[in-house]
Batch of 4 targets.
Target 1
Amino acid sequence: MPRKNPHSLETPTLEAPVNLTAGSHFERLLKQGKFVVTAELGPPKGAERAVVEKKAHLLKGYVDAVNITDCQTSVVRMSSIASAQILLEMGIEPIVQMTCRDRNRIALQADLLGAWALGMKNVLCLTGDHPKFGDHPGAKPVFDLDSIQLLQMLKTMREEKKMLSGTPLEGAPSFFLGAAENPFADPFPFRARRLAKKITAGAEFIQTQIVYNVDKFVQWMEEVRQKGLHKKAFILAGVAPLKSAGMAKYMKKNVPGMEVPDAIISRLEKKNSKAEGIEICLGIVEKLRQIEGLSGIHIMAVEWEEVVAQLVEKAGLLPRPASVGG
Amino acid sequence: MIVARPKSFEEIIRLIQNYKKVAVLGCGGCVTVRSIGGQKQAEELASLLRLWAKRQGKDVVVTEATLTRQCEPEFVESINDRANDWEVVISLACGVGVQCLAERFPRIKVLPGVDTIFMGATIEPGLYWERCVGCGECIVGETGGFCPVARCAKSLMNGPCGGSQGGRCEVSPDTPCVWQLIYERMEQLGMGEELDVIRPPKDWSVRPQRMIMEHLRKVDSRQ
Ligand code: SF4
Ligand code: SF4
């Protein structure tokens, strides 16, 4: 018997019909106006499938979709598409992260055509960190396209059923496309404008850099609303609990484009525990939920996946809506 | 200007140790401006090699010469007569000069005496910075006079990336984020809106590139 097309699993939904691009659970929830929760899963530095399964189990039922990182910080890990396939087999919806760091336009298109054929519906398009930060600093950085060009290429594939070269596609992928944005990077006045570029290029959802400086984030969201961007794309704020004062200081100093306010560092210095880190994170989530135009949160607790369930529960975000057809 | 740095003396020795007739060839172009591979440096390296040979008790003849520019065939021709006496040539020119010698003198072993690093400018005495990679389609007219291809660590066309902070590039605190510079200049020039336009993927067509100027070719063929 031929394998059925993984995208034909449409199950009727009880909610009002919405216009769907890819028809993923994640997309449907956003378009129904639900406050969505996603989390990040970092694949193993090796071929051990069980590691992916273990991490995925920790997230199942606590989030609406799981981002699979693409060799984050330029460290070699199991590929995001292969890991996403394991999640699909477990009935968890993946968001495939795809960077421009390691693939030229030929490889990007080929890999993503394959991802669609396997049933992956959500793609987060990223430029990627420079290889200098990773475990193979001598690797040749590709960056043939940037994230905006990648978005545009995938949108054109969807709408015009053509490759970047113009060659007609035998089956066009119809991904629900997303992008990342860092509201804390410079030049600050250009950040919302760059977000607009990403949305024009095809991003329908945005996951931001981890928010510690809520005031600055609020300021950025104000600009986003002024430009009406929150109506053109769903914005999910990145959050992550800090494990210790040391980690907070390290991130402030060493992670490009990351802002950790001193107030948070001194709070952790007074009471240096993971529990305090979680409390701080819950406080941030609480404030974020009050921001107009925010569609959800994205928990980036890579290598600390077990904290996600706790966070979601304590934040009062349970139960998560059941996935239809999943 | 092409910027190069000298190879270590140890490396040069390792490359030439089995030869008896060695020439050191300086270049009067870019590497002279930067005091890396001009006449003076060719003379210095030749004397060092003679000293080394003497100390080792080796019978090595070291010659030196400096060409106006090693990347122009007509200047390379000027050493035709002497070249027969050499087994090995250490070129202090950039990689282009080294290859011009190697092409012209197939019987001689041509070795680079410098590592060619980039095309750049003298920012202040002793400080040189990459400015262009010869991408074949200059866009700095649309990016405020700053090149994102050569100066952005990711050659971004729609930058700045999320790693730009305080005007610095994510790869190194010593490196300015060129997209910050582009943004400021474009705003200053009242061209800021151009940055909102999505730039398409760049054409990275076939390397090596070549360029033909027909009118000059005709002149050449008359000669
Ligand atoms: S765009 Fe940059 S690399 Fe290309 S020719 Fe101009 S300066 Fe050189
Ligand atoms: S920080 Fe600026 S120069 Fe560095 S990679 Fe990002 S955009 Fe390019």
Note: Residues B 132-135, 138-140, 147, 149-150 surround iron/sulfur cluster (ligand 1) (CB under 6 Å).
Target 2
Amino acid sequence: MLKEVFNKPLKWSAMKNLIFKEVDDLIIGSLGIVAFISFFVGGVVSIQTALNLTNPLIPRNLIGFATRQSVILEFAPTFISIIMAGKVGSFITSSIGTMRVTEQIDALEVMGVNSLNYLVFPKIIALLLYPFVIGISMFLGILGGWMAGVYGGFTSSDEFIQGLQMDFIPFHIAYAFIKTMIFALLLATIPSYHGYFMKGGALEVGKASTVSFVWTSVSIILANYILTQLLLSK
Amino acid sequence: MIEIKNIEKSFGDTKVLKGISTVFETGKTNLIIGQSGSGKTVLLKTLLGIHYPDTGTISFDGRIYSDLTADEKRELRTEIGMVFQGSALFDSMTVEENVGFPLKMFTKQTPKEIQERVDFVLKRVNLVDAHKKKPSEISGGMQKRVAIARAIVNKPKYLFCDEPNSGLDPKTAIVIDNLIKEITEEYDITTVINSHDMNSVMEIGEKIIFLKEGILAWEGTKKDIFKTDNEAIVDFVYSSNLFKKIRKAQNKEHGND
Ligand SMILES: Nc1ncnc2c1ncn2[C@@H]1O[C@H](COP(=O)(O)OP(=O)(O)OP(=O)(O)O)[C@@H](O)[C@H]1O
Ligand SMILES: [Mg+2]
């Protein structure tokens, strides 16, 4: 399937429009929900950490540190991707699946358009911007943590920022974005596969979206485990 | 002219097409008729190259499809127009974008030339005030017209229609049938139409092939259909009382009852 996606590409002028449309649907359209979730979950991580610091010997700057670590390493790349598997993934499966059951894909093929290239390639390209979404999520998650920590009276702004800078390992950022790119590829291809190769009618489109969500999330979780093992353990 | 020889097609263990040979003539409306499930759509999609036949050859004016290179196949496909059973319009595009799509994809025409051609074919199918609408905003009959417009916009040599008038009222159905027949004659296209509608058969059946369970059980013209003694087709046609009567009347007229 992947080979066909890159085969016999369309005219660039047509492809360009498709890519813009996908960026709009998949990336821009997701920013709102991602921003909302990141900000508040970042806040909750910060509050939870603060509430669990009952031992006075542990420094308060741990709040900033814990928020940074959890948001950058796991929350933004992995859990936002699971949410995106629900939002973007089921959108991809149902839109391609609908085109399959209403013979729109056959129509493309009959005209001589390589339908896999037409449908899937622009999505893969659009999702190259996915790290940008995750970057925003990281920023807002930490911002949310800072606001909840400072305005909730759990820590001072200085302590929190000191915690953010503590034991900073640059490779963690690389690790997070390598994961993000792999997840982006999974988010573009698995839902496309389930939509493209589905059979049946409107009811099956709904089922295919659900199945696609399950498989995309399972793959993201497994890929996360494997990548963490490969990249972080010595 | 499209010539098919001994086409067989199976899905898994079920053989859907069991050795079909015939000729579809240029400038005529060729009808494939038969009961639901008899293999009409599969035959049409095999002609289109959406399904590959297990055996047999399909030749488009002498070009044998399976012998063509990938580029030649693509070239051939730009000469084909198809009207799908459910219209298969792209629902993210407006009516005029749908019709202009094959031109945008496969020709070097400027946007202005494309617009002119789109306006022309939409007018040809008598659709003048729906240019900016989405497929979901127009009626089924209008969708069929748009699908026909899209199929003929790139001046095809071959036109395939899968039940072009299913789901339409009898009056609109006849209008669509006649539109296809006119276009076929006007542009000298080889047109193949799937149908199980006896009205279409009587309106536009210049050459008819009858499929029964994947076998070509009968072929002829609409005139022949009332004279034949072939049991399979008589049985198919006779499922309508109206046509029983017509057959009797016709046969009396010809004095061969
Ligand atoms: N992709 C496929 N995979 C497996 N079997 C198929 C496939 N397409 C069609 N069939 C089978 O082939 C047979 C013929 O189907 P086809 O769609 O050609 O019928 P039809 O004559 O077009 O009927 P209708 O008038 O209802 O459209 C059916 O039994 C169908 O189940
Ligand atoms: Mg059919």
Note: Residues 96 and 145 of chain B are 12 Å apart (CA to CA).
Target 3
Amino acid sequence: MPDTTPDTTPDTTLGAKKGRTVLRLTNATLRFGGLTALNDVSFEINEGEIFGLIGPNGAGKTTCFNAMTGVYALTSGTIEFEGNDLAGRKRHKITKLGMARTFQNIRLFKSMTALENVMVGADVHSKVSFFEALFRLPRHRTTEAEALERARELLNLVGIEGRHDELAANLSYGDQRRLEIARAMATKPTLLCLDEPAAGFNPAEKQRLMDLIRKLRDRGVTVLLIEHDMRLVMGVTDRIVVLEFGRKIAEGTPAEIRDNPAVIAAYLGVEEEDAS
Amino acid sequence: MAKDSSETKVKKDRRGFGEKYAAAPTPVKVVAVTLLLVLVYALPLLRPPILTTNSIDFGTVMFRVIAFALVALGLNIVIGYAGLLDLGYVGFYAIGAYTTAVLTVYHYSWPFFLALPAAIVVTMISGVLLGAPTLRVRGDYLAIVTLGFGEIIRITVQNVEWVGASAGIKDIPHPTGIGAKPNPPFDQGGLFQVPRLQWDGFVPIVDLEHKTSFLAFGSRDAVPYYWLILTFLLLILIGDRMIKASRVGRAWEATREDEDAAELMGVPTFKYKLMAFALGAAIGGMSGSFYASSQAGYINPQSFPLLLSMLFVATVVVGGSGNRWGAIAGGALVAYLPERFRDFADYRLLAFGLALTVLAVWRPEGLFPPRRTRRAKAAEAEIDALEEGTENEEVTHA
Ligand SMILES: Nc1ncnc2c1ncn2[C@@H]1O[C@H](COP(=O)(O)OP(=O)(O)OP(=O)(O)O)[C@@H](O)[C@H]1O
Ligand SMILES: [Mg+2]
């Protein structure tokens, strides 16, 4: 279980020791008609890791997220999350199990405030029934107060201070991306899946995002990161899997990936080499 | 047209008022709310000039107004909160009415206040039965299925002897009142009598001849019915407020905004859609139950035409989908305007249609759009102003 107490001071001790497998893909294959978006992909993510998932456009990264979160069913293979086979599980149940995600193309609840967006995430673990809410019974009050405090704390953590009551649609692009992270974090995930969270960010924002991702990991959350910016990926991740045309072509530490000829070939001319 | 300008005034008051109200100290709030409540309850007795309909009993009109407001409040949960286009709401209204009629007179002789909860439960169950298979599919499908549902219910009651077929059900008993039983034609019963006002131009005169009895329900006077249904409306209003500002309301809003994203954020969207649908159905059934046992005490299949469903949807859209006060205002207007224009006889519906058209052009988001629409519009206007100096934002809504 992740650290759930809303402590405002950043916790620098590792919330969980590495080792336990959080997510395991085994021979995951997913076909859309004739197109094989995921082709026999296997990898494991361990607790406490920041894990990178990279690859050229159309490699199948987002499809991988979609398969993990129950949007698409695998054609064959299995996905195990904390020992649970995810096949046939409802999407909201997978979230409740502890997997949360953000979206490549921002999908906030636009007509709700930033705070309400995060509260929706926080409601996942709420046990408040319809009647408890209707009659404002004690459990409703305490749960609501906790969720509110947690939501505010998360909004401040991701860097949306002072705009809690702004409608999501009216937030700046960067704030919307950060709000997605706060909303996902509110579900108290074990595994947080970020789909290109730095898309459209300037270098300063990217730096802050890296700090944030590390901070989240230090709270005990395992992070799975899809990102095109090599400097960011190499700088923040512990291990990386590279996809190309739905196949896993490499796996290893950032240093190993950087020198891998197959990866260089896949990215040749597409991505600048950010050897740092 | 005179109507429209007064409407504008009401709207402007509301907005300023809402903010002032929230900031006011508690005693001021209590006094304000109490005064408002007294005024609303006394409205059919005060019979304010201009507002009061002269060709039809004002109490009856006010009962209809609140009945529509109640329906609008229920349908607002379905359409406004959960974003489900229900075009067959009249079906639930009919089920509520028929359940009450069957239980109180046609096959059984339950008292009204026992039949009412039964009608609510029956409509809620029918809402679940209709919603469970249809709410799994998205969008337009629901509109078509519910549209069919409304008609199926009407055609069914038309052909089933057990519910009176085309002859309908008559002599539906009035609810039990408080105090002595009325003894027609002169003794009204009840605990005490309340006189009402009569207006000579703008001069009020106490009318001692037409008194309303507290509290006897009968065919002579609609005001006790008005009080009864108003009380239920207020209870539903409070409940609506509680639920909307809770995880349930958030789940509805998130589902309406982006069903997939909501599901992926852990919202069991189907469950919440079904909940909204069933709640809406129950409130529609409640309103139907009141309708059945109101003054006339008579219902038949013609009482539940498809047109009524359209009017119900109009109440929500006119008021501003997603805002409970808007729904109430919309319900009130849709019920009130045709009665007010009754003098124009045949042109009544035309005038009503015109009023709706004017409204659609003048305020496409409804009279009282919910906060989200207002704020989004304000932000949009701000951006427009920043970008192009003084851009006319009306254009974007044409
Ligand atoms: N629902 C779908 N139906 C059919 N094909 C799909 C569907 N979703 C994705 N694809 C295809 O699967 C392939 C992988 O897409 P995916 O979105 O996973 O790529 P990606 O690695 O996330 O790329 P990017 O970096 O551009 O986001 C693409 O060829 C895409 O067109
Ligand atoms: Mg992608």
Note: Chain B has a mean pLDDT of 80.
Target 4
Amino acid sequence: MINLFTSISPLGFLLEPLTHEFMRRALMVSALVGGVCGLLSCYMTLKGWALMGDAVSHAVMPGVVIAYALGLPFSLGAFVFGVGSVALIGFVKQKSRVKEDTVIGLVFTGFFALGLVLVSKIKSNIDLMHILFGSPLGISNLDLQQTLIISFIVIAILLIFRRDLMLYCFDPTHARSIGINTGILHYLLLSVLSLAAVAGLQTVGIILVVAMLITPGATAYLLTDRFDRMNYLAVLSSSISSILGVYISYWFDIETGGSIVLVQTLIFLLAFLFAPRYGILKFTNSSSP
Amino acid sequence: MTESFTSKAESNFLRIEAEEICVDYNGNLALYDASLKLKAASICGLVGMNGAGKTTLFKALMGFIRPSRGKIRINGLTVPKAQIEQAVAYVPQNEGLDCSFPVSVWDVVMMGRYGSMNFLRIPRESDRRAVWHALERVELTDYVNRPIGALSGGQRKRAFLARAIAQRASVLLLDEPFAGVDVRTEKLMADLFLQFRQDGRTILISTHDLGHVREFCDLVVLINKTVLAYGQTSEVFTSENLSRTFGGMHPDPISGAASLE
Ligand SMILES: Nc1ncnc2c1ncn2[C@@H]1O[C@H](COP(=O)(O)OP(=O)(O)OP(=O)(O)O)[C@@H](O)[C@H]1O
Ligand SMILES: [Mg+2]
């Protein structure tokens, strides 16, 4: 380690990892997935869906295991279980008097437990650690393809329905009154959430996906009062965190998912402290309007 | 810039038609046999005590709650069709919104135009003009770039009214627009409503201020879980009717001040 610092120039510090095929792939996938999750995180934080994000990302676990066991694309299994958990949450909430956050917690832990049980029972070559903690450095070709496709679907949906989804998060009553079908938007957003969780699972794993789905949005929210700018900032901070995280993980030989999320958390902390208007240490000069 | 709705305003075109509406919340009756017919170019006051079902009637007219019985038509269309045609604009009593949402006043008023845009909701020049015009009408042009959360309560109310104006609907449903606004804004709104009536639009306004009703509503509906009386303001505002509406506590029809029977 020490040698590395003394023997490599700062530029080499950035370029040396790029000579490895696996690092180029890891950086690309992580940046893309970071951007996708970052974009979605704006809606998650504004809609107050942090717990929902946590739920969906954990609930995809049994789907991933079953898909692997059956030799299906893992994203398919994950998507089915992600959407399934959401439908189940909606159903239980409607049919019982139990409060929503309780139902969410109940359903996702149930699904997650099922996933753990399945992993221990189905003797396959699934590496539990990869599902739980992600492994962008060792991503397979098939996983890479799936992640790319998912990312483009999510981006397309979020860009096409950008305004409608924003309106839905801000004022669903008005959305309905001008003839927009908010029921469809609700499930569209949840489907996108399931897809993004599947993509995020590739880089940071199931346990930390929820960070990808809320932290960039929260950071951006501290920095601006405009929805569009919030989108750019979230995507930017999320992609940068992912790239930095992968580099750090390479140089210091630490767990990649953890390092990506830690960088994200640090960026949030910086915004929390120093954001021009909403940071706790306001450095705005009083002369500015 | 005034647009006219006269093509449908002429004759006795019915803008709002509600027939024997019944609404219950999990078995608690909030509204029964409520019927109402409003022609084009009219301003109608909706008066009743707290819990009388005013907001419930609005929600039923907007299709937000499904009546257990009854029929509703807006401009002769079912509610969903009318909404798709941007025929009806609704300003709720309290928006109950997250006002820390990162949108500016301009963005909020632009939302009134979404229904008329293509599916990507890219504003055209005409949309921008409509938004600016609406902001002028409520005197909020100095605040276009303010975050919606940085407005006062009354200014926010004007912003949401501007959004309804920008929508250019022929039917406006306003739930207590005068609550918490200053005298100047009251005057501004009243002028606006009179102008809208001239354009051929129909406005249903719920209010607790009977003075307002006298001033500019040509029609009035008194409700208490059902329509108690309905018609020309001068004919409906009798002390007997008001007493029935407010259950003994009846406000003076002129001053609006409460007096006990
Ligand atoms: N979501 C709800 N669930 C159950 N009951 C409700 C609900 N909303 C309203 N109600 C009841 O229905 C009745 C009518 O309420 P509504 O809000 O329509 O009154 P209102 O005339 O608008 O009163 P206010 O002048 O206070 O605004 C009330 O008795 C109220 O308690
Ligand atoms: Mg009300």
Note: Residues B 54-55, 93, 175 surround magnesium ion (ligand 2) (CB under 6 Å).
